[in-house]
Design goal:
By secondary structure, the protein is mainly α. It contains 17 helices and no strands. It has helices spanning 21-28, 37-48, 55-62, 66-81, 95-102, 104-110, 117-120, 125-151, 157-166, 169-177, 179-191, 197-205, 209-219, 224-229, 238-252, 262-273, 277-287. Helix 8 packs antiparallel against helix 10 (169-177) and helix 11 (179-191) packs across helix 12.
Length: 288
């Protein structure tokens, strides 16, 4: 049976790289995915008053946590792939859609009290800080990507939002389960700003995280459209560009708007949105 991250497996504590992509996929495919403490607390409050929960308010809360979002989407995709429910024959490309397909009571039955990432990384505060940095970047990227998609009148705007939120989930899992390796990547990039992410990832991990993400999404049977939009190798697809440019800008502006790569980002975003550079900058600050 295909594995699902909604089911816990033994905690990992990886300090040395695995040899290849297949080994990374095999390890992470069943790894426990802890969620933010705030998410876990809110879920328990809603569990105690289930009648007050609906797909919209529960989905919006979950969608603020990329790790919990990943668990829900992967769980529903796994159910659909194994044909356990006639209701799950439609792809769930957003958390709200997944909750509508599952139903609120089945959701709370399947997702009990959640493991908490702050507890897992309590002895490694530097790792928690690294993860939080990626989570903040994902939230900003999802907001920017949604703004780009709405401006372009893209009917898949909610899926583009989900794709941007999940775009860096492999990096999040790395901070959770192999924080020393994640820290080594960050140290090398901080020491050399010209170093490409893919290059340093291959040097430290023997893989690129984008390849791991695509392989895990396929392993978990996540919706084809979600896989497509998060695939950076489809660089000329406008929906992929929405996500890619949002992720890039969120990364480059994480510490302010003075990174030397930002003018190129803005130029490409202006082209995507069919706007002048000045109008694009104004719009970006509104989105942000």
């Amino acid at each position: 049976m295909t594995s699902s991250p909604a089911r816990s497996s033994p905690n990992l504590a990886l300090s040395a790289p695995l040899p290849d992509l297949a080994a990374w996929v095999a390890l992470f495919a069943r790894a426990e995915i802890p969620v933010l403490g705030e998410t876990a607390d809110k879920l328990e409050l809603l569990r105690a008053n289930e009648d007050a929960a609906d797909a919209n308010n529960l989905g919006e809360m979950i969608a603020s946590d990329p790790l919990m979002s990943l668990k829900v989407l992967a769980h529903v995709a796994h159910q659909r792939a194994t044909h356990r429910s006639a209701r799950l024959q439609t792809d769930a490309e957003t958390v709200i859609a997944a909750l509508v397909l599952m139903g609120i009571t089945p959701f709370f039955r399947e997702f009990g009290p959640q493991p908490i990432v702050e507890d897992k990384l309590a002895a490694q505060p530097w790792a928690l800080q690294g993860l939080q940095r990626v989570l903040r970047r994902a939230e900003r990227a999802s907001r920017l990507a949604l703004g780009f998609a709405v401006h372009r009148l893209d009917p898949d705007a909610p899926v583009i939002h989900s794709a941007a939120l999940l775009h860096d989930f492999a990096e999040m899992l790395l901070w959770v389960h192999a924080p020393e390796l994640a820290q080594e990547i960050r140290k090398r990039q901080m020491a050399d700003r010209q170093l490409r992410s893919a290059e340093v990832q291959r040097a430290v991990l023997n893989i690129e995280l984008s390849d791991l993400e695509q392989a895990l999404m396929a392993e978990w049977h996540l919706p084809e459209l979600l896989q497509h939009i998060t695939d950076d190798k489809r660089a000329h697809d406008p929906q992929v560009r929405c996500v890619n440019l949002a992720v890039r800008l969120a990364r480059h502006t994480a510490d302010g708007w003075d990174d030397e790569a930002i003018p190129d980002d803005v130029s490409e975003i202006a082209e995507l949105l069919n706007l002048s550079t000045e109008a694009t900058l104004t719009l970006l600050h509104e989105f942000d």
